[in-house]
Amino acid sequence: MIREELLRILWEHADRSVSGAELARRLSVSRAAVWKAVEQLRAEGYLIESSTRVGYRLSSQSDVLSTEGVARHLRSKTLRTEVCASLPSTNTALKARAAEGAGEGLVLIAGRQTGGRGRMGRSFYSPPGTGLYLSVLLRPDLPAAEATALTACAAVAVAESIESLSGRPAQIKWVNDVLIDGKKVCGILTEASLDCESGTLSYAVVGIGVNALVPAGGFPEELSGVAGAVFDAPTLPELRCRLAAEILDRLMGHYAHLSDKSFFSAYKARSIVLGRGVDILSPGREPEAAEVLELGEDFSLLVRTEDGVLRRLNSGEVSIRPQI
Fold it and tell me: I need a labelling partner for 238 at 20 to 30 A (CA). Which of 10, 125, 298, 314 fits?
């Protein structure tokens, strides 16, 4: 299609304008057809600058999230991506597809979630236009007790992707949050189905929600002190497509080493809880103060509570206590 080829050319030459005459020649169409295709892209949300006798240029502010945009940046050949403008929850939708027999490597991506979910039954704020919400279907040969490694694998992939594209250092709060400057920019929710006979996972859905940019009007008041964004403003065309592809490529790279957990050192190096005071959070119970002593190679935490008891946490959640 003219539209798709035009978009590819504009993306390849995002650093300069391309004249209407050059586009018409390369597409073997009239300049009127070029103009019509440009208007079609603009109607879809692409920001295309134009100037008489200069030509057309894809603006760095253009951040349409699309299946073709993600595919343009994705290196992995084992993934099948589907992008939707909005879903209630990418995890919920993908679990339904998994139950129907969908194969490993299916990825659902949404620009908005109307019912996004976090850990412990919390909602996950998922506004349109500035966030990236994706879920990946995996079918690992993995005991259920080791499922935490999937979340850790995803956290490393996200942190590395953020650092690669933004140049900002990222940290990981056990086990599923990625932070920049102490503020949460990503949450990860891994949900799985257990094969009761073998004790291994039938499938796992790894959900990743990233605040790529600050929402218009800022974060809600209850989140403004704890939530942050990866980028202050769009810096490249298709920023969220690039981020999605980078995360997916790095995730699958680390997933290939799930058995030897070669990503452990990268996770540990970014841990923000080691040596820190934390509160252990458990549903229906008061927070319990403790100090984090060690991160196990199974991604468990060794902590010492205020009464001196050593405990190993294999699941759950902690919050970091303010340093005095």
Answer: 125
Beta pairing, strands 131-138 & 183-195:
unpaired
Measured distance CA(83)–CA(95) in Å, rounded: 16
**CB 81: neighbour CB atoms within 10 A?**
23
- CA gap 50, 42 in Å, rounded: 11
Closest by CA position to 201, among listed 282, 139, 148, 157? 139
Query: How far is Cα 295 from Cα 324, in angstroms, rounded to an integer?
Result: 23
Ordered DSSP codes for 98-113: HHTTPPTTEEEEES-B
Q: In whole angstroms, what is the distance from residue 278 CA to residue 282 CA?
A: 13
Domain containing 284 equals: 277-320
Find how far residue 20's CA is from the centre of its chain. 36
Among 260, 230, 257, which residue's Cα sits nearest to residue 246? 230
For residues 215 and 129, give the distance between their C-alpha atoms in angstroms, rounded to a whole number.
8
Strands (E), the chain: 48-51, 55-58, 80-84, 106-110, 131-138, 171-173, 177-180, 183-195, 200-211, 277-281, 288-295, 301-305, 310-313, 317-320
> What's the CATH number where 296 sits?
2.30.30
What is the Cα–Cα distance from 66 to 253, expressed in whole angstroms? Answer: 23
pLDDT tens for each residue of 141-197: 998 888 899 999 999 999 999 999 999 999 999 989 999 999 999 999 999 998 877
268-290, pLDDT tens digit by residue?
999 999 999 999 998 888 999 99
Shared domain for 196 and 309, answered yes or no, is no
- Nearest CA-CA partner of 206 in 131, 291, 138, 283: 138
Amino acid at 240: R
Distance CA(55)–CA(17), nearest Å, equals: 5
In eight-state DSSP terms, residue 145 is: G
